[in-house]
Amino acid sequence: MHEITKNHLISKWDRLFLRWVSETEMMSRTFRSVPFQLTTSLFPNTPLVNIGEIRPEDIANELSLPTLATHFSPTSPSHFADSTYSQNMKSHGVQIIERALPVGTSLTVVGELSRPMDNTLPENVLEVIKPQNPKLPFVLTRETYGVFVHRQTTVARVLWWVFLGSVSVCGFCILRRLFPFVYPRFKTWNERRRLQNYLMERKRHDQRLESVDMDTDLCLVCFERQRNVVILECGHKYTCAECTDELLDCPLCKGPVSKGIRVES
After folding, report:
1. CA 242 to CA 27: how far, in whole Å?
2. Does domain 218-264 have CATH number 3.30.40.10?
3. C-alpha distances in angstroms, 52 versus 115, 140, 159, 170?
4. Domain definitions of the chain by residue range
5. Of 88, 142, 179, 193, which residue is most buried, by most CB within 10 angstroms?
6. Nearest CA-CA partner of 41 in 104, 128, 113, 127
7. CB proximity list for 94: less than 8 A, separation 6 or greater
8. φ, ψ dihedrals at 187, nearest 5°
């Protein structure tokens, strides 16, 4: 693989910080590739896979080729240079960078394997091509397989945590905006539900009182222990000591309960 990049080196005047800022503008880029084969360090003369011609847009990652040579041509003084300088821009020159992939470079290739259509290749050599599925990547990197997988795992983990953080922040903002509208309705619904439960419990208790013989000596609350407490406010003796401690009103007249006298018969 061989690449020639032609860049225009300029400087622009920054009116905010009052200084010249260097910039690089790409003028042209030429990329050429020829088929090559990959081998292992143990068997350098035995090809494993064949890679055909590659285009830069086929590679999912940015393949940084080693720089072979750099040539710089400074801009000669001219009327055009003076006009650009008057427009707050200085032209320094043109830089030509030549990059290539030398023979023997360590590469890691991730792609789709297929049988070669070229009969000149050995039968045991497979060909790596760009996957037909656009969701599958075609990677060609100078990193080792372990380093490449570790870097991709780290990037995926960082993106996952960024996604969770973004979802959490968005959810918090949405809940904060909806809280003034939702909380009063929830509070009203909760109070209504508690009131309905209280009324149903009160109704069931009244029904139990109506079905119980008032002449019995059992407590009207638990119906298990004997009546042994007289409520001072109303004078009724229909509860036991344990239930009286938990009562707020008399089960018969619904009067308040604050004190009671235990009577043993």
Report:
1. 95
2. yes
3. 12, 12, 33, 47
4. 2-143, 218-264
5. 142
6. 104
7. 6, 7, 8, 9, 27, 72, 73, 75
8. -65, -45
